[in-house]
């Protein structure tokens, strides 16, 4: 079936000297693996510059749902970037977000609301001018909502302990180790309640930010199967030191 759709580049793995398998989260088909040939050649339909992390592209494809790896006929820029390729901090954030998405978007079914969230998040990163150090935290909070495991802050709000496993505040200390207490619980809640327009309203020092990203990653591990350590985390933490 010949189709045209937009997508966000998630991952690229070299298959041979002139072939790569590129994972793209598309609006119409969800996550799909595509074979890309000759990306470094001038006349290639899929130039290497289009395959950078989080690039938003428009693709022409012959989609066959029975095939694990699809073929791309043509690829074009759908949304041009103005800062991500040229800003080292945004570039590191793009790598981190790409790895998060690569680990969480396992299924091929399309989800237009999820796609819209991802594309909008990428556009917000490109135009972000303040509060950039909080961007990845607010992104993870929004992604948790889209994937259906956002905390229930209405249940037990005001209690001292926040149970990361069950996503609720509790009056008494949980019987396991996955919980937050006091100020850390309030910061976790504050981040979850923000959007990209209020990044600079989240006031944290470097130590608090490092602790909170580890907390959000722990929260994801507790609620998603096969969500393991991220290679890009160490680089990101060094950027914000």
Characterization of the model:
- It is a single chain.
- This protein has two domains: 2-79, OB fold (Dihydrolipoamide Acetyltransferase, E2P) (Beta Barrel); 88-239, de novo design (two linked rop proteins), CATH 1.20.1440.120.
- The protein contains six helices and eight strands; from the N terminus they run βββββαααβββααα.
- It is an alpha+beta fold and 241 residues long.
- It is globular and about 60 Å long.
- The strands form two sheets. The protein has a five-stranded mixed beta barrel with strand order 1-2-3-5-4. Strands 7-6-8 form a three-stranded antiparallel β-sheet, with helices on one face.
- β6 and β7 form a beta hairpin.
- α1 (88-104) packs antiparallel against α6 (233-239).
Radius of gyration: 19 Å
CATH superfamily of the largest domain: Recombination protein O, C-terminal domain
Q: Indicate the CATH topology of the largest domain.
A: de novo design (two linked rop proteins)
State the secondary-structure class. Answer: alpha+beta
Low-confidence stretches: none
Bin the helical content. Answer: 25-40%
Strand tally, please? 8
Largest sheet: 5 strands, mixed, barrel
Shape: globular
Number of helices: 6
Instruction: Give the CATH class of the largest domain.
Output: Mainly Alpha
Strand content range: 15-25%
Task: Supply the key terms.
alpha+beta, OB fold (Dihydrolipoamide Acetyltransferase, E2P), 241 residues, five-stranded mixed barrel, 2 domains
């Amino acid at each position: 079936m010949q189709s045209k759709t937009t997508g966000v580049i998630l991952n690229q793995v070299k298959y041979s000297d002139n072939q790569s398998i590129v994972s793209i989260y598309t609006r119409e088909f969800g996550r799909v693996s595509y074979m890309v040939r000759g990306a470094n050649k001038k006349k290639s339909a899929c130039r290497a510059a289009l395959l950078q992390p989080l690039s938003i592209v428009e693709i022409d494809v012959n989609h066959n749902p029975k095939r694990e790896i699809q073929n791309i006929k043509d690829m074009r820029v759908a949304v041009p970037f103005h800062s991500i390729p040229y800003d080292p901090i945004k570039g590191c954030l793009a790598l981190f977000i790409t790895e998060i998405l690569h680990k969480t978007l396992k299924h091929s079914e399309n989800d237009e609301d999820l796609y819209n969230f991802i594309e909008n998040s990428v556009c917000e990163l490109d135009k972000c001018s303040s509060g950039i150090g909080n961007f990845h935290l607010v992104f993870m909070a929004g992604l948790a909502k889209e994937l259906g495991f956002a905390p229930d802050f209405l249940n037990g709000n005001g209690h001292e302990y926040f149970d990361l496993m069950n996503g609720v505040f509790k009056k008494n200390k949980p019987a396991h180790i996955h919980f937050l207490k006091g100020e850390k619980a309030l910061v976790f809640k504050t981040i979850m309640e923000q959007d990209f327009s209020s990044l600079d309203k989240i006031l944290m020092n470097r130590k608090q930010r490092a602790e909170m990203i580890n907390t959000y990653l722990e929260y994801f591990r507790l609620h998603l199967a096969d969500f393991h350590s991220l290679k890009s985390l160490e680089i990101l933490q060094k950027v914000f030191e």
